[in-house]
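ARCHIVE CARD
Drawer: 12
Card no.: 0347
Subject: one protein chain, sequence and derived structure
Cross-reference: see card 0346
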Amino acid sequence: MLLATATVQRSAATREPTWLRWLLIGGALAFLGFFLVLPLLSVFAEALRKGWALYWQALVEPDALSALRLTLLVTAVALPLNLVFGVAAAWAIAKFDFKGKSLLITLIDLPFSVSPVVAGLVYVLLFGAQGWFGPWLMAHDIKIIFAIPGIVLATVFITFPFIARELIPLMEAQGTEEEQAAMVLGASGWQMFWRVTLPNIKWGLLYGVILCNARAMGEFGAVSVVSGHIRGLTNTTPLHVEILYNEYNFVAAFACASILALLALLTLAAKTWVEWQAERQRALDARMAMDE
């Protein structure tokens, strides 16, 4: 009797009135609609304001195509680098104890605490014409700042925490029992990784890759500092949008921005699918554990 009474009291204490629930839900929906959905719709409305012909013309313009190609190229280079680093760093941090572990975690979090503009300025200080390595680079005709290598470096710096930070808590929660069992059974390091570790982290890894990819395609601050804004050469799509907007070419600016918005929506859809698959996998694992 006392147990039932306590349960009812706890339930009543955590149950909000109906009007309060609707107020909270309505407030959240209004906030999302005003600050997220409305700006997103306005991008497509402005892009198509003068018709499909001008919209398409803005997308196939040579500078726009060059900016899009550069964006995809930089993302294609930065993503594998961050993938390798993220998996290696997460594996080392979650599975091993070593000196400097806390320092490594702090360095991984550094891009979250440093402004992207400051990160770009650091690369200018290092590799610019008046930077530490600038004279040597100029003597050997190597271009980093105001060239594609500088854009890649800035993008890699800004995006490298995403995969590692997604995997570290997941791998720490999984522990090392399965890896130790695989080694006892005679598996090599690569066999242990491919057959034990990777299947256990595949959904978290894919989630981190999606976030890293989205951040790389949309990066503006650090890339703006190191790119030089050279049309057709070092402008990524976000930089191209800024230039068009500053020139009062609003239709073209919003047309190119709509491509980034579409990529963001596709990323959101992929992220939702990965979360659903991960939740489905956890439910399946829990059911199998209960059956055993």
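Annotation on reverse: Residues 87 and 164 are 6 Å apart (CA to CA). The chain is about 80% helix and 0% strand.
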